[in-house]
Design a protein that fits this description.
- The complex is a heterodimer of chains A (355) and B (312).
- Chain A has 355 residues and is mainly α.
- Chain A has one domain: ABC transporter involved in vitamin B12 uptake, BtuC (Orthogonal Bundle).
- Chain A is 71% helix and 3% strand.
- Chain A is built from 13 helices and 2 strands; from the N terminus they run βαααααααααααααβ.
- Chain A has a two-stranded antiparallel ribbon.
- With 312 residues, chain B is mainly α.
- Chain B has a single domain, classed as Orthogonal Bundle (ABC transporter involved in vitamin B12 uptake, BtuC), CATH 1.10.3470.
- Classes of the chains: A mainly alpha (355), B mainly alpha (312).
- The interface between A and B is large, with 49 and 48 residues.
């Protein structure tokens, strides 16, 4: 194979501007590649993308729908980012979301007479704890027995999914329709709708508050600094006196808890009962969001909003033009792949060797 | 209920063990090559899904199942080359690269299916799937006949692939080069081994086997394609590599063990135990984690795993 001789030259550390450019460029490239698939479906990509963006941002209702998707995506994005910050590879936000949804639903359907000011905090806390518990197991296995967390979190996603199935086809099954859905939570347990006539619920604001909390941890706390130090170099952090394992477990618990909140809000903000397709891969989209956002709180929020546009918009594009909706996942995966190329180009300059 | 667990039950469990082990065996042997050369391939789940989809579509459109298997292998190899480009040429983080490929392929496999297959009323279209072949005379043996000599061709092929892969990895110069690259790429480079080429080849091989593993699910096990039909088998393969100490023959044993667990839970479901079947479905995943806990302290990972290599 004769290729032009290329040489890699390391650039100075990328500036913020370059990182942002890499993220935006990778999304553009992903949309460009995806347009090939839209052509395959017999649709003009420009028309397709018009319907995608119009369907997500075009009017008040679609914009609020995009925010409805933003809620779980921002939460799973922050969840992944916190864990990735200290290089705890939590690929289990999807499972932690389900664990949180199950825990919240349990309280939501058990205390039907409870007033809102009791049941909503209870569901929120139990959602957090459910997700935290599901992330604690792989974290404990990693720190105690050196079991690789990537595999255990990935397998955990399927285990909790099967457990959800067993519960929804078992004790919680709707006795009349036989649908795999839990009974509905009470009216009092539903999160308040903030914009009448839409589905814009309180959970969206709470998700933004979680992003703010992450911002504080990231910028303003010693703990955030320790997590970043562990991520950069665990051995050096250890010799600096940072408790690596303890911090990792804490980050995992917080990460899982935030993903669990996503599950809780999907139940009491949107669906009002537990169901098998509670998440449409939000946990995996969270990985894409965390990476696109450079693990930075502001970046994560922006990336989550963009992915919310993609998720909402591909549904609209599907309805109008018939382009199959799994395109959304293709765009997500391609964005991540293109980002790796973008990051490479911010770190290295490719030079042709002149002989 | 217990009288249902008679000799016929166990023969059926053992017969199915080989069938459930086949995708795990193919995927894990490929993964072993990738990791032996220093690359963790988390794209495996996506490669399997692509193989399942492409294999099914080929079988559905042309009616030739073997063409389906071939194209499934090729689609996996293409993704393997992409994985190599990201992790070897660009030196990108291996976790992220693999997950990117899996997320993309998970969508793409379903997208291509929706594009090519009409689904009236949401009922999945089926193709006439592979059938077991009877080995003349031997298939009529009592007990041994149905277990060993009445299997799918792909079952035999996967076992042959595992044995040949063992031979390649441990008894040839090529295998020595692969292991050297995964242990100490700089030293390997110094003695004239092309680290980049070895890793590209290993990932292509891993992708091809994962693709064929996927086509097994759609063309032999079920005769249809469902989104996400691999249900985490790729992740079980990632764990099985550790359990099998990156050695194709030990992996053969491990795949049989986990295929056996899968076959056992499926047979119990068929007998009709009054437990939700989802609790059976998660058995392989739970046992995989238990197995990882048992071996993780003793596992010796290839030393260059996860570390990108750059020439100075």
């Amino acid at each position: 194979m004769v290729l032009p001789r290329l040489k890699l030259e390391k650039r100075p550390p990328p500036t913020l501007k370059m990182k942002v450019a890499a993220a935006i460029g990778s999304i553009a490239l992903a949309l460009l590649f995806s347009s090939i698939l839209i052509v395959q479906a017999g649709v003009n990509p420009l028309v397709g993308y018009f319907h995608l963006f119009y369907g997500a941002l075009g009017d008040k209702l679609s914009l609020t729908e995009t925010f409805v998707r933003f809620c779980p995506l921002a939460l799973t994005g922050v969840a992944c980012a916190i864990a990735f910050l200290c290089k705890f590879w939590n690929i289990g936000a999807e499972g932690q979301l389900y664990a949180g949804g199950l825990a919240a639903t349990f309280f939501g359907i058990s205390f039907l007479g409870a007033p809102s000011y009791l049941i909503i905090p209870l569901m929120t806390i139990s959602g957090f704890l459910g997700g935290a518990f599901w992330a604690f197991i792989p974290a404990a296995l990693k720190t105690r027995w050196k079991v690789d967390e990537v595999v255990t979190t990935l397998l955990g996603n399927w285990i909790i999914y099967f457990i959800t199935g067993a519960i929804l086809y078992g004790p919680w099954q709707n006795p009349v329709t036989k649908w795999p859905e839990s009974p509905a939570i009470s009216e009092a347990a539903k999160l308040p709708i903030l914009i009448p006539g839409t589905r814009f619920h309180l959970g969206i604001v709470l998700a933004l508050i979680v992003v703010l909390i992450y911002l504080v941890i990231y910028w303003g706390t010693a703990w955030g600094y320790e997590l970043k130090a562990i991520g950069a170099n665990p051995e050096a952090s250890y010799s600096m006196g940072i408790k690596v394992e303890r911090n990792m477990v804490l980050a995992a618990i917080l990460s899982g808890g935030i993903a669990g909140l996503a599950g809780a809000f999907e139940v009491n903000g949107l669906n009002f009962h537990m169901k098998l397709d509670l998440s449409h891969g939000y946990g995996y989209t969270g990985i894409v969001i965390a990476m696109l956002g450079g693990l930075h709180p502001v970046g994560v929020a922006l990336a989550a909003f963009f992915m919310a546009i993609i998720v909402t918009g591909t549904q609209a594009m599907h309805r109008v033009t018939g382009v199959p909706f799994p395109l959304s996942e293709v765009i997500q995966g391609l964005s991540l792949i293109c980002l790796l190329l973008g990051n490479f180009l911010t770190e290295y300059r490719v030079r042709r060797v002149v002989e | 209920m217990m009288q249902a667990l008679n000799i016929a039950f166990w023969i059926s469990v053992l017969t199915m063990t080989f069938r459930m082990a086949t995708p795990l065996l193919l995927g894990t042997v490929g993964e072993a090559f990738a990791e032996r050369s220093g690359i963790l391939n988390l794209g495996i789940e996506g490669m399997m899904l692509m193989g399942a989809s492409v294999g099914f579509l080929m079988g559905y459109i042309t009616g030739n199942l073997w063409l389906g298997v071939l194209m499934a292998g090729i689609s996996g190899m293409v993704l393997g080359v992409l994985m190599a480009f990201l992790t070897v040429t660009l030196g990108a983080q291996q976790h992220v690269s693999g997950l990117g490929i899996t997320i993309m392929s998970s969508g793409l496999s379903f997208y291509l299916y929706r594009l090519n297959v009409p689904t009236p009323g949401g009922i999945p279209i089926t193709v006439k799937s592979f059938e077991p072949i009877k080995v003349p005379l031997l298939a009529d043996l009592p007990i041994l006949g149905p277990i060993f000599f009445n299997q799918y061709e792909l079952v035999y092929i996967s076992i042959i692939i595992a044995i040949v892969s063992f031979y390649l990895l441990y008894k040839t110069d090529w295998g020595l080069k692969i292991r050297a690259v995964g242990e100490n790429p700089r030293a390997a480079d110094t003695v004239g081994i092309n680290v980049f080429r070895v890793r590209y080849i290993c990932l292509t091989y891993a992708g091809g086997l994962a693709g064929i593993a996927g086509s097994w699910l759609s063309l032999a096990q079920s005769g249809m394609f469902l989104p996400g039909m691999t249900t985490g088998r790729g992740w079980i393969c990632i764990a099985l590599v550790v359990f099998g100490f990156w050695n194709p023959l030990r992996i053969l044993g491990g795949a049989m063990l986990f295929g056996g667990i899968d076959a056992f839970q499926l047979s119990l479901q068929a007998v009709g135990f009054k437990i939700p079947y989802q609790l059976f479905l998660m058995m392989p995943h739970v046992f995989t984690i238990i197995a990882l806990i048992l071996v993780s302290r003793r596992a010796i990972y290839p030393r260059a795993l996860l570390k990108p290599y750059r020439r100075e």
